Fold this protein.
Amino acid sequence: MAKEQKVKKVTVSQFPEHGPLDENGNEILVELKNVDITFGKGDSKVEAVKNASFKILKGETFSLVGESGSGKTTIGRAVIRVNPLSAGEILYKGVRISGKIPRELDRAVIRNLQMVFQDPAASLNERATVDYIISEGLYNFGLFENEADRVAKVEKIINEVGLLPEHLTRYPHEFSGGQRQRIGLARAMVMEPEFVVADEPISALDVSIRAQILNLLKKFQKDIGLTYLFIAHDLSIVRYISDHIAVIYKGDIVEIAPTQELFDYPLHPYTHSLISAIPIPDPKLEKMKVLYTYDPTMHDYSEDKPELVCIGHEHYIYGNKKEIEEYKRRRESNEVIKSITIAKDEEELARLNAAKRKVDENVKMASGDYILDRPIGDTGSVWLAVISFFLPLLGLLAAAIYRSKNYIRNYKQCKKGSVYGLIFLAVIVVIFLILLGLALI
C-alpha cells in the first residue's frame, strides 16, 4: 500500500499506550505488511495468503470478505499468532507481533487480542462448565482481586450477552447454537480486549439470531471502544456494520475501500460478482436477476505484474498498470456502478443466462481447479505407488494417462512409485557393476 509508515524493529516487552498515526491523523491499531502464509511443502504446498497489506484503525470495524477458501480465516488466525507467516510482518500499535517475540509480549497479545470463532460448538470445551470457560482467561492472567471479584465479573458479562447466572453451572452441550456463540463472546469480552477477530460469528446461526449477535458486537464496541476484524462471506451483512471492507480472492487482497465507497464503485470484477450475489428481498426481482460471474482469465499478468494501488478516495485496487488506469478513469467519472442486472422479461433472462453459462464453462476449463472436477475413481490408492515401484515404466505410462484424464491423486501416486522404483533399479545396477568390476579384478 502507498505511503507506508516506517516502524523501527525494536524488541519491547509491552505495547505503547497508543499506536502510530496515519496520514489523516487516525490511530493505526493493527497493520499487515506484505504478509505471505503458506502451508505444506513441495507438491502439497499451498499459498493461502499472498502479499496481503492493510491497516485497521482504532475503534472501527474492518471487514474481510471473500468466498470459502480465499484465506480470510487464515489471516485472522495469523493476527492472533496461531498461523505463522512465511513472509511479511503484522504490527499491533506499531510493534511487531508476528514471528518470534518475547514471552511478555506474547502474553500481552493474548490479553489484548481475542477471537470469536465461527463454530460455537467446536470452540468450547465440552467437559468444562460455562463458569470455567469464561473464567479461564481471568485465571491465567490474574485479572481479579479475589473470588468474589471473579464471580462478579463473570456474572456481569454473562448478563451482558443475554444469558443468566444460573447458566454458569451448565455445560456447552446443554445450549443452542446462538447461546453457545454468546458464551464464546462472553469468554472473549471478559478479558476486556482492545481488538477482536470475529471469524464469521453468525454464519452457523439461525437468521433470527444473527441480528442479536451483531447487536451485541456493536454494543461492546460502543461501550468499551473495541476494534473488530470481522470475517464474513456475505456482503449484505458487512455492509451495515463495517467502516472499511477488504475483498480477498484466492489469497490476494483485490480491493479495499470504505463501505459506501465499495458498494457505489465496486471496481474489481470479483467485487462486482460478490455484490451481484446478494439476494434481493423482492422474489419477483430475484427471479429476474442475472448473476455476474467473475472470470480470472480476463487478466493478463504474464508481463505487467499486478499490485495493490490507491486510486484516491481511500480506495485500493489490485491490478496491473493498464487496469489501474482504467479503474481510475471509471472512478473519476463519479458514475455509480450498477452491480445487479435485472432482466426485463423472460426472453432477455434466458439470453443473459445462456451467455453466463458460456462464461461459467470457460472459467471452469481455464481455472485449473480440480477439486470439483475430480473423477470419483481418483482415490490415490497406495497400491498404485506399490505397483509402479516394481513396474516403473508401466507406472510412468499410467501416470501420463491419469494426468491427461484429470485423475490427479492417482497420477501423483504412480509418479511417486515410478520415481522410487527407477532409483531403486539404478542403485541395483550400480551395485552389480561394482561387484562385477571387483570380480574381474
Residues 224 and 371 are 44 Å apart (CA to CA).
